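Please describe our next protein:
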Amino acid sequence: EVEALRTSIAKLTFPVPEHTVAMMLPRAVEPLAVAFVDGFASGDGISGGNAVEYWLNDRSVLKVATAYHTKGEIHFNLEEWAVVLTREERDHYTRRIY
C-alpha cells in the first residue's frame, strides 16, 4: 500500500486541489495537524497554511502541506506538496509549507 501511494503521489503535479492526496489513501486515516502558518499578505492577497500527517502504519507517515489563499473575496486551498517518510526521516524533515 505504501509504495503504491508513493507512486501515485509522484504522478501528481503540485499544487493540487485540497484533499486530493487524502482521497488517494487506501483506507480512512485520521490526519494529525503538525504545523500551522498564520496568514500573511502576499502580493494581492493573503496566504497561510498547515501541514498534517497521516500515519500509514507503524513505520511510514504521509505528510501533506496545504496553503490557504485569498484574493479579494475569493478563497481557495491548494495542496503544495506531499511526501511519504519513514519514522526516522520524519524526525529530521524540515520543508516549509510553501
Q: What stands out?
A: The first strand starts at residue 16 and ends at 17. The two ends are 27 Å apart (CA to CA).
